[in-house]
């Protein structure tokens, strides 16, 4: 890689990092090329030449968020046996991540869902796509647990995904808004209680 290419890639990485921080602080909809230029010390035209447009920047931010989420939450869970152990690993890692009040662990999708719940447009569609992709992944793991006899055959995967999601949204609310340091423990207990109601009798034996 030549020096010019390496410098260009490093500049783009710095822009993307700053944009991720801005999105976590202010919301994905509040991203601004002008403000990003101020924070990075790069001219607005320099920022524009690398990201193309505000819409392209928002897309890149969400893509990078997805990549990091996958690396921290999804990929490590694949080391666990299929089914319930993998689902539990995913939910525990997800919960631990969002319960950390650090800026980098802010959930862009949860914040974006409230920011764009009554709006239409490509950004809302992209946010919804990301949420549905993660829900589909959870549903697939639940189906595996049912096939393995770990969860009752009458389990409604969509209902269980909804209940898990509701626990995590509650966790985000109480952690970040109420600053309750007991929230993660409470959420983990609630998840254990929830799963116990779905476990098959064979798996409980």
UniProtKB/TrEMBL annotation:
Record-linked PROSITE patterns: HTH_TETR_2
Residue ranges of domain HTH tetR-type in the record: 9-69
SUPFAM superfamilies: Homeodomain-like, Tetracyclin repressor-like, C-terminal domain
DNA-binding region residue numbers: 32-51
Pfam families tied to this protein: TetR_C_13, TetR_N
Keyword DNA-binding carried by entry: yes
Alphabetical keyword list: DNA-binding, Transcription, Transcription regulation
Protein name: TetR family transcriptional regulator
InterPro entries per UniProt: Homeodomain-like_sf (IPR009057), HTH_TetR (IPR001647), Tet_transcr_reg_TetR-rel_C_sf (IPR036271), TetR_C (IPR011075)
């Amino acid at each position: 890689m030549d020096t010019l290419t390496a410098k260009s890639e490093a500049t783009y990485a710095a822009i993307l990092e700053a944009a991720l921080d801005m999105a976590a602080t202010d919301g994905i909809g509040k991203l601004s090329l002008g403000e990003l230029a101020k924070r990075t010390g790069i001219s607005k035209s320099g920022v524009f030449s690398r990201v193309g447009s505000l819409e392209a920047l928002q897309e890149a931010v969400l893509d990078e968020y997805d990549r990091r989420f996958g690396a921290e939450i999804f990929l490590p869970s694949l080391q666990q046996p299929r089914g319930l152990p993998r689902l539990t690993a995913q939910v525990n890692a997800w919960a631990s991540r969002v319960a950390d009040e650090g800026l980098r662990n802010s959930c862009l999708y949860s914040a974006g869902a409230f920011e764009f719940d009554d709006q239409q447009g490509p950004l809302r569609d992209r946010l919804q796509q990301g949420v549905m992709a993660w829900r589909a992944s959870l549903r697939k793991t639940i189906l595996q647990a049912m096939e393995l006899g770990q969860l009752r055959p009458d389990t409604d995967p969509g209902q269980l995904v909804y209940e898990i999601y509701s626990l995590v949204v509650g966790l985000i609310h109480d952690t970040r808004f109420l600053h309750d340091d007991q929230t993660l423990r409470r959420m983990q207990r609630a998840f254990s209680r929830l799963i116990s109601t779905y476990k098959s009798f064979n798996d409980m034996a």
